[in-house]
Write a structure and sequence with these properties.
The chain is mainly beta and 447 residues long. 15% of the residues lie in helices and 47% in strands. It folds into two domains: 59 residues; 361 residues, Porin (Beta Barrel). The protein contains three helices and 17 strands. It has a 16-stranded antiparallel beta barrel. 29% of the residues are buried.
């Protein structure tokens, strides 16, 4: 029943009721007084009803206007909510570095160029330009260009360019397809961009085994099982050109599989475990400025664990994050170090690497973190003694501590200290100052 209808009924019913009531015993003047009071109440209620109606209309107008113009700020916004208007974002990632050692060679490992420690002094680091939007109601697309400096000149690299299905694509609930070039699901850090890391550099296993990250051309399928616990299964097929693969002959030289489970512990804790495998057929993988080549098969097996705890129930104020990953790499083929003149040497062995880190946010804008990473080199074949694959009995290790200040979700400044001992007797003390600034839209990163 509308307010206007109620007012009309009251306006008619009240006078009629009074008119039909016997008034022989009542004074006419008293009756007029009562009728006047009723009219006053009627006007007061009409004014209150009109005021309420105006407030309702005002709220509805504000709500409609907000829906049209509001653009929530922060890394929590989803770039998939922009419908078909492309989101454009720029990440500025610069640093200043100081090293105590002139070189940083990994004993027992042939590391790719991206896995090296980087330049000393001032550097713009790796800045990124991202374009992303819904293609239509079934597909989402994204492209990321990285601006890097190599050999004294600036280069633009196609870091990611992919499409993936949306929930309305017609696939079963929980199933998703992703195709193109992307940071694929392999361990925890690999599917994240470097600027989203908790430290200024990647831990040793990523630098040695993945040349910092694996982003080959390919397609990946994932399925989130409908259950109370988080369960995700997936895998992919890739071209086989990117490290640890190389020189693909068939265009289908690598494939992966993974499984992840996780859940909540109460209202302020969460956890996740993962297991991963990547197989690569390596026709030609060159490292160490092309001096070291490998031909054969490379298999990487990894596991990760992540735990988060918000002490007061609000992760924006305080949060503890514990994270660790373990890698095992089995390789079977031939190594050739032209710099050491080894020729082709048969190699069939495995090496390992792991890291563990803790990051504590003790105030909304301040965090402290510590990380330890270790590599375990394979036994050196007789033919590779004196080459880059000769560990000389040393296993590389590194300790890192950092503190960062986050002014907003768009800007962060970090100070970090590393103590790396990658070769026996070479302790490299490193100091790094890093800034990460985000301009424009940028989607949230995965858990």
């Amino acid at each position: 029943m509308s307010l206007r209808y109620m007012r009309a009924v009251a306006a008619i019913a009240v006078p009629v009721m009074l008119a039909t009531t016997p008034v022989a015993a009542a004074d006419k003047q008293e009756l007029q007084k009562i009728l006047g009071e009723i009219k006053g109440l009627k006007r007061a209620y009409e004014n209150r009803i009109a005021t309420l109606e105006n407030k309702i209309k005002s709220l509805e107008t504000k709500k409609a206007s907000s829906a049209k113009t509001a653009t929530p700020a922060g890394s929590s916004r989803s770039v998939k909510d922009n419908s078909f208007n492309p989101s454009i974002g720029l990440i500025l990632n610069g640093r200043a570095s100081s090293f105590s050692e002139n070189s940083s060679e990994f004993a027992g490992f042939a590391v790719g160029e991206e896995g090296e420690r980087g330049k000393e002094g001032l550097s713009i680091g790796e800045s990124e330009l991202n374009f992303s939007a819904n293609v239509d109601d079934k597909f989402y697309g994204s492209a990321t260009l990285a601006v890097v400096q190599e050999d004294g000149s600036d280069k633009i690299e196609l870091e990611e360019v992919y499409i993936q299905t949306l929930p309305d694509a017609g696939l079963p609930d929980g199933l998703r397809l992703k195709a193109g070039r992307a940071f694929w699901t392999l361990g925890y850090l690999n599917e994240h961009h470097a600027h989203a890391d908790d430290f200024a550099d990647r831990p040793l296993p990523y630098r040695a085994f993945l040349n910092k990250s694996f982003n080959d051309d390919g397609v990946e399928v994932s399925y989130v099982v409908p259950s109370d616990m988080y369960i995700e299964l997936g895998g992919g097929v890739f071209r086989g050109d990117d490290f640890p693969a190389g020189g693909s002959a068939s265009g289908l030289g690598a494939f992966s599989a993974y499984a992840r489970v996780g859940g909540d512990i109460g209202d302020n804790q969460s956890w996740r475990l993962g297991a991963y495998a990547l197989h690569s057929d390596v026709n030609s993988r060159a490292t160490g400025e092309g001096a070291v080549t490998f031909v054969g098969k490379s298999n990487i097996y990894a596991a990760d664990i992540r735990y988060t705890w918000a002490p007061d129930g609000n992760a924006k104020n305080k949060e503890l994050i514990l994270q660790a990953e373990f890698f095992n790499r089995d390789e079977d083929g031939t190594y050739n170090d032209t710099g050491a003149g080894t020729g082709n040497v048969n190699f069939d062995d495995s090496s390992q690497g792991w890291y563990a880190q803790a990051v504590y946010k003790f105030a909304p804008s301040w965090r402290l973190g510590a990380r330890y990473s270790q590599l375990l080199a394979a036994d050196t074949p007789a033919g590779l003694v004196g080459s880059a694959l000769d560990s000389a009995g040393h296993d590389p290790s590194a300790i890192s501590v950092m503190g960062d200040w986050t002014n907003s979700e768009f800007g962060r400044i970090r100070l970090q200290y590393n103590r790396e001992e990658l070769s026996d007797g070479k302790k490299d003390n490193q100091f790094l100052v890093q800034y990460i600034m985000s301009i424009g839209a940028h989607g949230a990163h995965a858990f």
